[in-house]
Amino acid sequence: MSPSQENQTDIALEAAHWVVRAQADAFGDPDILRLTEWLEADPAHARAFEAALATWGDAEALRAAAPVRASEDVVSLGDFRRRAAARKAPIWRSPGAVAGMAAALAAAVLIPMFALKGAPARIYETHKGQRQTVALDDGSSLELNTGTRVSVQMSSRARRLVLVRGEVALKVTHDASRPLTLTAGEAEITDLGTEFNVRRDGDGSVAVAVREGEVQLAENGAAPTTLHRGDIAVHRAGIAGAVVGHGDPDQAFAWQNAHAIYRDQPLSAVVKDLNRYFDTPIIVDDQAGKLRLSAILTLDSEPLVVRRLQDFLPVRAKTTDSGIYLSVNAHPGGN
């Protein structure tokens, strides 16, 4: 290991220690001053602190799978990531900017922590094929799609949600003094007064669709992005910078009315989505998977959904003990 690598390792370890120590009840004003001094000493310290805090945030998302005890502290990453992204701006070149940003970093990790201190987390969960509507005490509402798990933590100063898996639609009562953030893997969405849908897939990708108002999307290593009505953003795990497009926002919310909308989608992608809803897997061969579908499917029962796929596309279905196999029908019109 080279001297520079060894130094980077030492800095990374020290940054990790600071992040962990900041969660303790005994972390007081003298500790804040020492942390600020350490951050001021070298820009590499601030970068390492950001990386360590991001790692802590990923661990928090996993820990949300179990209810949080009232004595535990939870760190919100929204303010920190927004300030961290600002470090790429020219402000870093101005006199005193390092000291100011260091203080902001220290405050960003501590202030949200104390805002949620003592606030218990509640877990809401649906199984495959289920949906659930949850009314929050602030007037906001959540609707959970199939196979979804969400942790909700509310206090008088902050509202924090963690989407552990699945899909959720939010209708948020905006309160600037009580910000609402939703963390989904590497992505964090902050409400700016809106209605939006978030889906987290098993591969770590996160899709955000905005039907009303605005949200701010923050990702590791990328500047925050403001999404407006009709915007659809897709974040890929490990890749900084979401792909943002514009389309019909109702498509992302169709599941609330037991529908799924597909526009020129390969059957392989359609089947992957449908398998979120049904216990018996639908399997397509390579040839059938390349067929493209444009349709609105009612998600009532699996046999009827498969029947509709056969009506729209030249495929035949065969049911076995392991699943329902779809293959290209060599004689269109027959099954």
Could you describe the 3D structure shown?
This protein is α+β, with helices and mostly antiparallel strands. The chain has three domains: 3-115, no CATH class; 121-249, Jelly Rolls; 258-328, Phage tail protein beta-alpha-beta fold, CATH 3.55.50. 32% of the residues lie in helices and 33% in strands. Strands 1, 2, 3, 4, 5, 6, 7, 8, 9, 10 and 11 form an eleven-stranded mixed sheet that branches. α4 packs antiparallel against α5. The longest helix has 21 residues, at 43-63. The N and C termini lie far apart (65 Å). The model is unreliable at 61-102 (pLDDT under 50).
Looking at this protein, list some descriptive labels.
3 domains, eleven-stranded mixed β-sheet, alpha+beta, Jelly Rolls
Please specify the SSE layout and strand pairing.
Layout lengths: L2 H19 L7 H13 L1 H21 L14 H9 L10 H19 L5 E5 L6 E4 L5 E4 L4 E6 L4 E13 L8 E5 L2 E14 L5 E14 L2 E6 L3 E5 L7 E4 L3 H4 L5 E8 H8 L7 E3 L1 H4 L2 E7 L3 H11 L2 E6 L2 E6 L7
Parallel strand pairs: 5-6, 13-16
Antiparallel strand pairs: 1-4, 2-3, 3-5, 4-5, 5-7, 6-7, 7-8, 8-9, 8-10, 10-11, 12-14, 15-16
Helix pairs in contact: 1-3, 2-3, 2-5, 3-5, 4-5
